[in-house]
Amino acid sequence: MRDADRALAALLLALDRCEHGRHKGDRCTGSESCNGPSVGNKFLQPGQRLGTDMYGRSIVYPKDHRVLGVVDYWVPEAARSIARPV
Ligand SMILES: [Zn+2]
C-alpha cells in the first residue's frame, strides 16, 4: 500500500472519533459529552449520505463503525451480497 493510500485509510478510519480523539465506544473521559464510552463523531451520523459515486449509487457513512475499513460498506448498493455483522 502506498503512503498516500495508507494516509487516506487512516483518515477514513478516524471518522468515528469523538472530539477528544477516541473511537466511538472506546473509553473517553475527556468531557461531559463523552464521560465514559466515546459518543463518536457528532458531526457525521452513521448511515448519513455523503455523496454519489460515478454510477449514481449513494456513498454513505457506514452504520457500523467496526466496518469503516471495508470499502463495500461505503457504497452499500454495490455490495448487497456481502455478509453483514450481527
Ligand atoms: Zn470523547
> Helical element count?
1
Helix content: 10-25%
Biggest sheet features: 2 strands, antiparallel
Using the alpha-carbon principal axes, give the shape: globular
Order of helices and strands: HEEEE
Which ligands appear in the coordinates?
Answer: zinc ion
Low-confidence parts lasting 5 or more residues at pLDDT below 50? none
Strand content: 5-15%
Q: What is the gyration radius calculated from CA atoms?
A: 14 Å
How many domains would you count in the coordinates? 2
- Termini separation: 30 Å
Mean pLDDT: 87
Find the count of extended strands (DSSP E, 2+ residues): 4
Spatially, the strands of the biggest sheet line up as 1-2
In terms of structural class, how would the helical and strand content be classed? alpha+beta
3D structure, described in words:
This protein is an alpha+beta fold. The protein folds into 2 domains: 1-42, no CATH class; 45-86, no CATH class. It has one helix spanning 3-13, and strands spanning 27-28, 36-37, 49-52, 58-60. The strands form 2 sheets. A two-stranded antiparallel ribbon has the order 1-2. The chain is globular. The mean pLDDT is 87. The structure holds zinc ion.
